[in-house]
Fold Dipeptide ABC transporter ATP-binding protein.
Amino acid sequence: MSNNVTLPEQQGPEAGTAATREPLLAVENMKMHFPIYGGFPIKRKVGAVRAVDGVDFQVFPGESLGLVGESGCGKSTTGRMVTRLLEPTAGKITYSGRDITHAKRRELAPIRSEIQMIFQDPYSSLNPRQTVGTIIKSPMEINGINPPGGREKKVRELLELVGLNPEHYNRFPHEFSGGQRQRIGVARALALEPKLIVADEPVSALDVSIQAQVVNLLQKVQDELGIAFLFIAHDLAIVRHFSHRVAVMYLGKIVEVADRESLYTRPRHPYTHALLSAVPEVDLDTEHKERIRLAGDVPSPISPPSGCRFRTRCWKAQDKCATDEPPLVQISGNKEGHLTACHFPEAPSIEARVEDVVMDPALAALEKDHTEG
Ligand SMILES: Nc1ncnc2c1ncn2[C@@H]1O[C@H](COP(=O)(O)OP(=O)(O)OP(=O)(O)O)[C@@H](O)[C@H]1O
């Protein structure tokens, strides 16, 4: 079982080398504005929910990019546009050199199998009336794929790969626990041998003790099969395990992106600092009393704050922040590839914030194994 899988060292593309490689996925100024209609008797468009408001990022072959931020920041919407479950309002999505931003169903067909999604809720994402075998097999049937040895053989191999008993082929989803169902979701996503998996909060519906096992499984899959991941989570502790690079999203924008090491040890954006300081369950000792607490909720994406969107919750905000939107750039002191959108960034301190990343005990144990192994 995946319990025994040790965490491999992430060998992903470094920021420097990444620039010289062709990205598998490139997103430029991508936006999703959901229209709001009102008025009587004739309904008119009266506004828009600016769920995603101009994001740029790239994912390289075999790379795992973590996308983090509080609830409502637009992470899921971003993931759904990348998989083209949603069509962007503006911007451009390029996959393997092809512009798929507005590609129609038929045009998307050849790449549908290459981009797969793993959903948050392993309970609602599996059809309760279908056996596990049918669930995992159906993407192959839909796409007319006949693997050597047949589809059933392939399904049994996939079950084994994700740590389930191949003999459970004829069982139904309700016979499995949450963690096992998420493994079924992973097997289904792998059935078409994808090149990119968008995993939208794949472990947040699971019990904390199970989360580590599923993260571990995804990491094994990524490492052994070389699949690129866009790993969406609200928790920096989970993404840390898994990502070569991490992008931090706030109210429809990416505010900071960096390789894993830079982001966790030298975060520059106050919001990243705040996320790293989020400590729900740990007793506050003197050292930790100064942890940053984010006040209030994320403002409404219908009318986001002017200038820097984080300014209404930021302890460093000044007048300039209300008038000038900070660009996402490599500010002074940042390593190559580390971009920050802030007028008054935190110092590039190597004062590790690592101790601020609070992990549940199971994840912490994995991390320990990883470093010791
Ligand atoms: N179909 C829709 N119509 C209108 N607004 C939407 C729609 N889908 C999402 N939104 C809004 O867009 C914003 C971003 O939502 P999204 O689900 O992408 O955020 P998120 O960061 O993934 O949050 P969560 O972790 O809660 O899913 C939210 O304010 C949400 O209410």
